[in-house]
Design a protein that fits this description.
40% of the residues lie in helices and 15% in strands. The protein has 221 residues and is an alpha/beta fold. It folds into two domains: 61 residues; 132 residues, 3-Layer(aba) Sandwich (Glutaredoxin). Strands 1-2-7-6-4-5-3 form a seven-stranded mixed beta sheet. A hairpin with a 5-residue loop joins strand 1 and strand 2. The longest helix has 46 residues. The N and C termini lie far apart (44 Å). It comes from Streptomyces lutosisoli. This is DUF3105 domain-containing protein. Keywords: Membrane, Transmembrane, Transmembrane helix.
């Protein structure tokens, strides 16, 4: 019975992700059309003397305040920590200092890290990764204390799971950690059953501020 239930749950989750990916592709096509239209408008505006407006917006971004992520973690009975407090979602150009490592939300860069099962060998910019979390991605992170076997096994899992990404974060507290928007937990190894549980709950989970938003056509190393 349990096996059948798990298969049904996995099939349902895969179907939901596929539906979201189709919606993402349609959104990207619309965005390309809008971008072309916007470019024409911007050029016309510049010719008409719109440079002042563009410069004003740029100055505003350059002086944007750091992340307003105030609060603290509360650990649930399942071991998942939930951020209780404010997680702002402004797009900023300044370096953001987050109150947790890895960060689980707050102000971030306007460009996301690609998170379509992307595995990065080097550390990524927190501000881009947080944008990925906003889109419903789960971020797998590890430091030098994690075993090579665990890193390889986790990378294999990430590569076959849409809306996930993986990268090293040397300054994190524990060897292997999983993060989603407003959620975080430590796992003991790649075979820890809590890895699958976290993925099932938070890949495009209810905590996602922008479900179905793009995890491709962003930043990659």
């Amino acid at each position: 019975m349990g096996s059948a239930k798990n298969k049904t749950s996995n099939a349902s989750r895969k179907a939901r992700i596929e539906e979201l990916r189709r919606a993402e592709q349609a959104r990207e096509r619309r965005n390309r059309i809008l971008a072309i239209t916007a470019s024409v408008v911007v050029v016309a505006g510049l010719v008409a003397g719109g440079v002042v407006l563009v410069k004003s917006q740029s100055d505003k971004n350059d002086t944007a305040s750091d992340s307003k992520a105030s609060g603290h973690f509360v650990t649930g009975s399942d071991g998942v920590k939930t951020w209780k407090g404010t997680l702002s979602r402004n797009h900023v150009t300044k370096t953001v200092k987050y109150p947790m490592e890895p960060p689980v939300g707050g102000d971030h860069n306007q460009v996301w890290m690609n998170c379509n099962g992307d595995v990065y060998a080097k550390a990524v910019n927190n501000m881009n990764a947080v944008h990925s979390l906003e889109h419903g991605a789960v971020w797998v992170t590890y430091n030098s204390k994690a075993s090579d076997a665990d890193v390889k096994a986790l990378a294999a899992k990430v590569k076959k799971t849409p809306y996930t990404l993986m990268s090293p974060v040397e300054d994190q507290k524990d060897p292997i950690m999983l993060s989603a928007w407003g959620k975080q937990r430590t796992v003991t190894s790649a075979t820890d059953p809590n890895v699958d549980k976290f993925f099932a709950s938070y890949v495009q989970g209810k905590q996602t501020p922008e479900p179905g938003a793009a995890c491709t056509n962003g930043l990659s190393q």
